[in-house]
Amino acid sequence: MSPVPPVHVSPGAAHLSPEVLRLLDKWLPQQRWYPVPAEGVTHEPWLTVTFGGVADVVVALLRLAGPGLAAGDESLVIQVPLVLTPTAEPEADTAETEEAGLIGTVTTASGRVTVHDGGVHPVAWHAYFTAALPGTCEPEDCAELAGARRISGEQSNTSVVLPALPHATGRGGMLKILRTVALGPHPDVVIPAALTRAGWDGVPRYLGSVELPADGPGAPGTAGDSEDSEDSGAAGEAPARAHLAVLSELVHEATDGFELACAYAARDEDFGERALELGAVVAHLHTALREALGPGPALEPAGFMGVLRRRAAEAFADVPALAPHRAGVTALYDSLSTRLSAVVDGGGVVAMQAIHGDLHLGQALWSPGGWKVLDFEGEPQRPVAERTAPDLPLRDVAGLLRSLDYAAAVGRATDPQWVSHAQISFLEGYREAQSRVGAEERGTRPEQSAAGPRPEEGEGYREAQSRVGAEERGTHPERSAAGPHGTVLDVGTAELMLRALTVDKALYEVVYEFRHRPAWMHIPLAAVERVLSS
Length: 534
Ligand SMILES: Nc1ncnc2c1ncn2[C@@H]1O[C@H](COP(=O)(O)OP(=O)(O)O)[C@@H](O)[C@H]1O
Ligand SMILES: O=P(O)(O)O[C@H]1O[C@H](CO)[C@@H](O[C@H]2O[C@H](CO)[C@@H](O)[C@H](O)[C@H]2O)[C@H](O)[C@H]1O
What we know:
- This protein has 534 residues and is α+β, with helices and mostly antiparallel strands.
- It has 2 domains: 7-222 and 236-249, no CATH class; 255-279 and 296-436 and 461-472 and 483-533, CATH 3.90.1200.10.
- The chain has 15 helices and 17 strands.
- Strands 1, 2, 3, 4, 5, 6 and 10 form a 7-stranded antiparallel beta sheet that branches.
- It starts with 6 loop residues before the first strand and ends with a helix.
- The chain binds adenosine-5'-diphosphate and the ligand O=P(O)(O)O[C@H]1O[C@H](CO)[C@@H](O[C@H]2O[C@H](CO)[C@@H](O)[C@H](O)[C@H]2O)[C@H](O)[C@H]1O.
């Protein structure tokens, strides 16, 4: 007997009545994971997903359309799993039902239906879980789902802890339902899967994923999306490829890196050792990514600077409070542009590669097994193509430097050295591990690498900063990966690059805070000011 295909996909709003869609229009913008400001945004049904043998679970994939949003293949698509159950009476007790993820009760052509958020509903969890690991249990007696719970907090997606899930190295899983669906392979699936395959244990081990079936309807903007295309997967039409969820091993006794750093900051306790270890893990991550996914192209200054400038322009357009910094950002980017062009004109190659892309302390878990890095989907507010493009590893370094600054602010460290010490330690951990890997590849001892000795206690942040990403003579792995050509970056350009990437990140954060947590906007705003005046 052949197994029932677990995931079916239909075009448009199949299985979803207009009443349910209207209910969603009101509910969606109130969700933390809703990716854009809601004003003027409409939700257009793109595809509907159902799971073989599970009657009540319907997943709406909705395209967001409206001011400032891209159309066609670039459009933002959100995933809305629903549990739809026929019901006789409206729910009576609102408080109780809110707890259970009730979205509402509506009367449709086929009767009265209760609509629940599938992100918090065990029946939907079971559907995703069995699609990720086919051939497992029935919902009623699924031992793997015992004790399952959604994690709460400020998440861009919806993650569910499965404490009882058995696997090769123990017990416990994390099911992550991706709320923003990327057309094509999703980096939060592809990257952990590649790193797990390569044997790198700095990520939670990848166990499985849920993907649209290969013979489903076309991508937005293709023939499969047109109104007269009833026949899903019609000849000549490119089926849409998209991941919906990812399952990974649960990291036990894990502490969120941001909470950990804030707790240290609140006690003014030295975070140096943890930061040093994290720096080393991030350096190893970059090596593992390069090895697992291959080197990227060389940086092309005009294109690279064009992206930085466009992102800054978007931030200035979104947040009026940034206006006083426009000239400073332009001047910083002009200096970097001049230096980068000189490097490249002089025959230097600045190699790019796959990076994390949105690295901050909340993406790192501290556990008895050391730091684990999570969440490879890139900055959720950016277009997918931009998020997955090869980039400079220094972008991740800048992200963590910013995050340590957030931890100092949120944890209210009173010692002004707390943050600089943590940042220097992080940079040193990164640099030391980078030199060790480089030396191993060259067959020399780490001390012989050109990166120089560790800065003495008290040496400044600027010095430590300028050592990271700077030229290390001849055989740096990034260089050999990029080909036989010369330089990475000289010390001055590396420092300028890190400052520019820090500003780029802080501008992104200002927009993020403006949209989601205005009370924290002062944190990145102060950073923009500080970096520009340093
Ligand atoms: N494999 C895992 N083991 C333990 N905790 C995890 C695991 N994956 C994620 N988490 C926890 O869930 C939180 C959210 O995960 P993350 O992948 O960052 O989702 P989001 O994209 O929604 O922010 C993390 O901050 C971490 O605390
Ligand atoms: O984790 P996500 O993928 O949802 O990332 C988004 O949300 C983050 C906040 O949860 C946000 O990070 C910013 O705030 C953090 C403290 O909460 C801080 O440590 C980070 O440095 C700062 O960037 C992230 O930018 C956003 O993409």
